[in-house]
Amino acid sequence: MDEYLLIESQGPWGGPGADRFVADAVRLRESGCPVSLFLVENGVTAALTGGAPVLHDLLKLGGQLWVDTFSLDHRALARERLLPGAQLVDMDRVAAKLLETGVRGVWH
Amino acid sequence: MGRQLPRADVLLAVMGGPHVNDTVTSAVRLAQALLERGATVQIWTCGHATGLTKQSLGGSKPRNLENWEYDYPSSAMLAKELLDSFPEQLTWYSCRFCTEERGSQPHIEQIRLRPPFKFTEHLDAVDNALFLGVC
Amino acid sequence: MADHRRRLLIIERAYRGALETQFADVLYLARELNRQQGGTDILLRGLAVTFAAADPGPAPAMTVGRRKLETLPAPRDSVRSLLEHGATVWAEEVDLAAFETGPNWLRAGVRRAGPADPLPDWSTYRGVYFL
Question: B25-57 pLDDT, tens per residue?
Fold first, then answer.
């Protein structure tokens, strides 16, 4: 079974597409695929409390929610406002995952 | 038969234009992280992203009125920096069609022009391909 | 008769290319207009309200090849500079709610726009421009 690294770069401020992409992540998880969703650039705003409700579904299903530390800090967003379960990561972690055998990357 | 493209670990296809959002910043950050891990990376630019490596940009951005003497590197200089730092691991391609359509030629020396119908070969030559942004 | 009203600049699209833009971000243009126009009003909305956070956070930097690039945009420093140079800066209350963590989150001197403190009245400006 494939594992997925999904990367969301725009978040709710970029329009409805971000929620749809997270819903894609949920569907993949429901089908049994391991899923890591990496939020980068403005996408990190989805992981703030009140950001994207569909993320709760992903976390409940055991999906991984990664938030880019660089993007968060550059936007002066407070870590204490992140959803419980969100993990702060750097780009090296993302690179490592992308290089793992069997991992499929998709950028939105 | 044409020369076969060498395999690489990752293709980063930068489709989104610069100065719109942080796509280019992320592409370079991810490329740097992959390269530091020893991966082989191809970067392909399309659309206005082809303008990142225009020779006419020179090495420096125009002067900052508030910091006149400081030298700010152009995107072309930063691309060269990345290529010079990882010469065996990184190859940077630019779509010939977009380069011509968007007036991005000539590129800096290290950029390889490829016709758009060859893009499929790049997709087949890597284990993972990410499309960053849209043209 | 000469029109001496100020101009209103509205910024809603934020974070547009750290690596390629560097110092020349939208606030650079705003600072120049403020200087040349003898004062402007700037309304931040959407994600751009984060430009007005009091805490600038760590100076943004990234590595490109062997170079450490330390000239990425620093919007919170830019807002501080705008205030120092006589600009009036507003941040829309409805968007602040998405990011604030407490009463000291917003930089002192930045005005809250709506509902308690009304949004800038467009009719009082010489022109309104989305940057």
Answer: 999 999 999 999 999 999 999 999 999 999 999
How many angstroms away from the CA of C124 is the closest CA of chain B? Answer: 31
Q: Which domains does chain B have, with CATH numbers?
A: 12-59+69-132 (3.40.1260.10)
- Decide if C64 and B24 are in contact by the 8 Å CB cutoff: no
Residues of chain C found within 8 Å of residue B18, distances taken between Cβ atoms: 17, 20
| Model ipTM value | 0.96
Q: Does B66 touch chain C (CB under 8 A)?
A: yes
Q: Cα dihedral angle (B22, C68, B61, B57), rounded to 10 degrees?
A: -80
Q: Are B64 and C73 in contact (CB under 8 A)?
A: no
Query: Which of C58, C76, C99 minimises the CB distance to A77?
Result: C99
In-domain check, residue C2: no
Place of tokens 């401020």: A13
Helix (H, G, I), strand (E, B) or coil at A74: helix
Residue C121 CA to residue B80 CA, distance in Å, equals 48
Give C12's contacts in chain A (Cβ within 8 Å): none
